[in-house]
Amino acid sequence: MERLETRELAYFVVVAEEQHVGRAAERLGMAQPPLSRAIKKLERRIGVPLLERAGRGIRLTTAGEVLRREAGKVLDAAAAAGHRTRRAGETGPRLVLAMKPGADAGMLPDILAAYRAQPAAATVDVHVCGVGEQAGLLRAGAVDMALMVLPYDDTSGFDTELLRIDGQIAILPAGHQLAGRPSVRLDDLQGETQPRWPGMPGTGPVVRDAAQLMQLISLGETIAIVPAAAKAHLRHDLVAVPVLDAEPISLVLAWPEHTRSATLATFVRTAAEVAADQRPRDRLTGGVSGDSVGRRRMADSALLRSK
Fold first, then answer.
1. Global pTM?
2. Cβ atoms 207, 176 nearer than 8 A
3. Are 71 and 12 in contact (CB under 8 A)?
4. Helix and strand totals (H; E) in the chain
5. How far apart are CA 307 and CA 298, in angstroms?
6. 71/77 Cα distance (integer angstroms)
7. Which CATH fold topology does 6-79 show?
8. CATH of domain 92-166+248-303
9. Distance between CA 147 and CA 190 in Å, rounded?
10. Can you identify the CATH homologous superfamily of domain 168-243?
11. Which residues form the HTH lysR-type domain (predicted)?
12. What is the mean pLDDT of the segment spanning 1-30?
């Protein structure tokens, strides 16, 4: 089989996302006939059908689903190569960290201060992104590392350092019937409206950031189950109640597998040390730092084979 071109893979991904050749052509800024020909040519080259008709649109075959996933990885890798090459030509070392608002459990200022005190510390730029965008930024090479929350964020293809483990709390309006309880269980929250993040299933209001979420809770439109660290930024008209049987939440620092960077290794080790130092304080907030020995071993094995 001939080598596939990134251009035709990009065409296919847009068609797969739109599930309609006409809409895909409009999105790509091209006429529909040449796009249809490009997809048919791609099918001939691979040797299997990728699309089938579904009413007025199309749907992916089993082979098409596989190609959509694999094509996404190829396109991400191509974009990452461009980003990393361009950044390699910049003057002076620099690290870019992605995080969604409030996702650092209040640790990032201490981590940055400790890192800046290290010899030959690089400039660190913090890229505040939307919910769930960290993985895409890492895969595209737009950032070097990201603060991510498990089990919600996708860390496949990344090495990670565990910084903190949090319990979870329910954020409720002050007048909610459960607001006065010392704790609740998940069964107590059955039937409550909960928010829906972009791209996720659910029936609650779509929420894109923490400020919007808190406003909706205040209005009685929803409640939310979030990491216990969020309590530190709670509005006066909201109440936090521990959820005893909710799955613990892990805050991790993530970066692409096979990265070799002494600069990044120093940042990871510094973050691990700060997390370990904050462990006694975590007992007061419901969080538990990860094992510092395990963190340091991971940082050494994954990053210190620098070029």
1. 0.63
2. no
3. yes
4. 10, 11
5. 18
6. 10
7. Arc Repressor Mutant, subunit A (1.10.10)
8. 3.40.190.10
9. 30
10. Periplasmic binding protein-like II (3.40.190.10)
11. 4-61
12. 87
